[in-house]
Amino acid sequence: MQTNEQLLSAIENYLAQTEFPAEPELLYAPIGYSLAGGGKRLRPMLLMLSNGIFTDKIQHALPAAAAVEVFHNFTLLHDDIMDNAAVRRGKPSVYAKWGQNVAILSGDAMLICAYRLLGEVPAQLLPQILSTFNTMALEVCEGQQYDMDFERKPKVSVVEYMHMIELKTSVLLAGATTIGALLGGASEEDCRKLRRFAIELGLAFQLQDDLLDSYGGEELGKTIGGDILEGKKSYLMVTAMSRADEEQREVLRHTYKDAALAPAEKIARVRAVFDALDVPRLTEQQISLRFDRALATLDGLNVPDARKEPLREYARSL
User: For residue 170, what is the DSSP state?
Assistant: First the structure.
């Protein structure tokens, strides 16, 4: 069995060797720029690790792992346009560096490249893998639309928010994990269990991201309090709104718009309401619940414990 470090190295090498034409430069250069930007490679790692539960032959899974990573980066190119985001992974976003039209077209080309990579999987498995990939891709789009809808919606419930992040974040992890299992020869039952594992892991991952946005340290490489300053309906915000009295709701609704307040004051004012309502602890509780569910589902796989350990270790590292 490959170590997690060896798998990550194999993914990076495969992506680095994936060649794109030199011309037209404004179509292909942004793709290389995006893929060279690093990131956690979370989705291809989950694909390779779930594949490795059932087989020691990893080479046949690398095209699909690259496909989910290219697809993920395609969504980021278009997300940055929708969010008017100037920075991605500490560098200028493709949108900021080359403009909206280039980011749209290069993103479209990335989606096509993802399907081309997917076409390299074993022919007998392609229909099932393609169906899994297509369902995943459409659900990600649905999640993004719900997220945009929430910007205009006066009230968002915790249930609605959890459904949105399941679509926007978890289903891509679940699709990658399921595809890896299929390539490894997993049974239908084990594929279902791994999908549920990845859904719960994705929810924990996104809730952790929400928590760190408001309560993390600057070493994370992102502006702390960004969700608060944007008035974003994060898990912390929708939980607080569900528990707040009317005075507290007014603070949560309007602080980010107050031009008289400095950013640090806005963050402090909203966090004071979060703290008063015990929102950080409730969020941590929900993260632990989802993570424990993920690991419990992994325990139920019908394979020796030693084969599950690399995926379990990777999940813990998140």
Answer: I
